[in-house]
């Protein structure tokens, strides 16, 4: 990773992904996440790999997850630059304006909470 990428939030390095993330790379992956929301809450983190703010919020959110004792949700990660069509589908299907970074919490197939930027917190899942 170049010096500029480190400062301005270039693409994530391989191996940088935390083990609790499930990735959304297709409409099938999104459908699996929605189906899973009928068993327990699902949190979808929409991340822009070229944005420093998004990278900072992601790191802070990951720290919250790692230090939490109560993990009653599945965590899905969407690289919205690589999979913008999926991000647009989420916004359209759930009626939630696209933002980045953004956390959308789904339960029983419907969004119950969403937040963006510095408002993203593990507390959104407890709602």
From TrEMBL:
It comes from the Bacteria. InterPro entries: BrxC, Thioredoxin-like_sf. Pfam families: BrxC. NCBIfam families: B_thiol_YtxJ (TIGR04019). This is Bacillithiol system redox-active protein YtxJ. It comes from Chryseobacterium zhengzhouense. The gene is ytxJ.
């Amino acid at each position: 990773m170049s010096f500029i990428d480190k400062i301005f939030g270039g693409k994530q390095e391989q191996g940088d992904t935390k083990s609790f993330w499930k990735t959304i790379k297709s409409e099938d992956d999104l459908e699996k996440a929605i189906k899973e929301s009928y068993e327990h809450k699902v949190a979808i983190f929409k991340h822009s790999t070229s944005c420093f703010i998004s990278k900072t919020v992601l790191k802070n959110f990951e720290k919250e997850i790692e230090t939490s004792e109560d993990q009653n949700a599945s965590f899905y990660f969407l690289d919205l630059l690589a999979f913008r069509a999926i991000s647009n589908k989420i916004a359209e299907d759930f009626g939630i304006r696209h933002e980045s970074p953004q956390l959308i919490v789904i339960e029983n197939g419907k969004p119950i909470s969403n937040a963006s930027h510095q408002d993203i917190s593990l507390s959104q899942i407890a709602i």
